[in-house]
């Protein structure tokens, strides 16, 4: 087109640029082609420049996007709502929501009018930044004054409130929609159903599900998946299977997310063979397993003490071109450590490093705990020092593993290192990690164990024990059952202190 004797209209060039952006997101290519237009002195129109702004926004080059906006004004074109909406969306996309709000105020002050898309984008940006209250405030400010609020704006805020577990507020907003004669859609109901499910109110969630059916609003795969997952997490796999039947009767095809939930549910209720059966029949069902599918299987197999099967599945991932993620490695490393196969676990740690996979404290906690369990106290302490040098900060679990390992291994008691106990305890508080009942119990136990060996420090130990017990009471950290310590006696710490 550029080499033709009679240069085609700018509209033809716009069609090519627009096609590149809309079909395959070839933003860099579109920018390069625009530069060729400039080089050939072909004058762009507003549509061309709007497309260019969109490309710069999606590549994170907001400075260039605003340079094009300045060029629009300089040429004498009048920016339209597409121009303004693209810039607002670009700022929000690049997490510059407050700059987007400032730009909004600026253009409105200069007489430009924005539309529902503009305000929907701003509300969405605020919600994505966790500022749902500010989004709600904007909804109130614009309602009937600047634009008419629509179902999209309500859906965005309802969804954000539900994700924040503020389901009562979300439901009130839904009732407000109804009062305004705004018809809720599948997005509205799906968000509310999700909200009620994550706070454990399944009865209300199913009530909304039946309500949407009565309103002739067809649930989609996402809606069904929310309910299937919620039932599976409650251990109600039978009801989840019934929901799967309803799903297919409604003409909605189950996807990998649906089956992942079912596999997770079967592992939860210890029906391992059924979970394995679903996994190996996915292909026959026309569904390709994803990394989440493998993670669920590896986790379930490890917890069922089927570590060899989990290793085989891990190896299978590579042949299926599925790249293991952090959760995959962490799950398998934890399973290997608990089955006392530390050398293999360490090989996986090295593999992660070689592959450029970032390791987190969860990865190392499993290895540190295994080292203590196998009486490699010095290696465990050395590893803690090493990860701190790498900039990985220990968490509450790390400190608990350290305290438990050092005490049970006699590391502190053998040498009478009471000061080290107090130092470790202080570090926890300094790092913003609040000790719980188990922490206090562990420290009190080490003083008691060492009592017979260091009689000259007995009175000091008794004082320390009482101080710790008093701190426990004053912090209102009464000993109780936790998920990781279900075998602990909830009154044990009281007897220890007495």
TrEMBL record:
PPR repeats lie at residues 45-79, 80-114, 115-149, 150-184, 185-219, 220-254, 255-289, 290-324, 325-359, 360-394, 395-435. InterPro entries: PPR/CCM1_RNA-binding, PPR_rpt, TPR-like_helical_dom_sf. SUPFAM superfamilies: HCP-like. Keywords: Repeat. It comes from the Eukaryota. Pfam families: PPR_1 (PF12854), PPR_2 (PF13041). This is Pentatricopeptide repeat-containing protein. It comes from Vicia faba (Broad bean).
